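step=encode ok
step=design start
structure_in=
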């Protein structure tokens, strides 16, 4: 998963001809660093300096070095690297939540005329997933509270034509 994220990010940078970073900081130890380095090599970007910051002991790993760099606990350099890592982590979580919310609020149901937010929520509450809505019979759809027979028929016909 992490390797695919790195791949997408740097392919976008290549396409957009954006400037390259002076240093890439990976949130993780040797394994994550190794995976990221493989992706960078595949993209022809092996020249970019990359380090990994392992969370448990806050050790810094570099490619080709067996032993980690251990900065003093009260070091400003360690504090800076931790803050960068934590901010990137916060940003990633926020972005993931935003994308997930978009997925939850936009669906194939939005393309069916006459199905608004209230009916969409009622359908999802009743069936749980879009897949179960697609598999529902007309009678099952008509049994959804606040949906009505006309809307149920529209949904049934829509998904019948889709498959």
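sequence_out=
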């Amino acid at each position: 998963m992490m390797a695919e994220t790195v791949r997408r990010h740097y392919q976008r940078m290549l396409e957009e001809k954006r400037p390259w970073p002076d240093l890439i900081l990976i949130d993780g130890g040797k394994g994550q660093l190794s995976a990221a380095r493989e992706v960078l090599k595949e993209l022809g970007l092996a020249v970019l300096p990359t380090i990994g910051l392992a969370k448990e002991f806050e050790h810094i790993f570099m490619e080709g070095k067996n032993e980690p760099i251990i900065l003093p606990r009260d070091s400003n350099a360690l504090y800076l690297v931790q803050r960068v890592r934590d901010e990137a982590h916060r940003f990633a979580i926020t972005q993931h939540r935003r994308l997930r919310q978009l997925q939850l609020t936009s669906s194939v149901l939005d393309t069916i005329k006459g199905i608004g937010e209230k009916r969409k929520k009622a359908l999802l509450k009743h069936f749980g997933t879009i897949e179960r809505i697609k598999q529902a019979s007309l009678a099952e759809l008509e049994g959804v509270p606040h949906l009505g027979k006309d809307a149920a028929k529209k949904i049934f016909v829509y998904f019948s034509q889709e498959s």
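step=design ok
step=annotate ok -> The first helix runs from residue 2 to 16.
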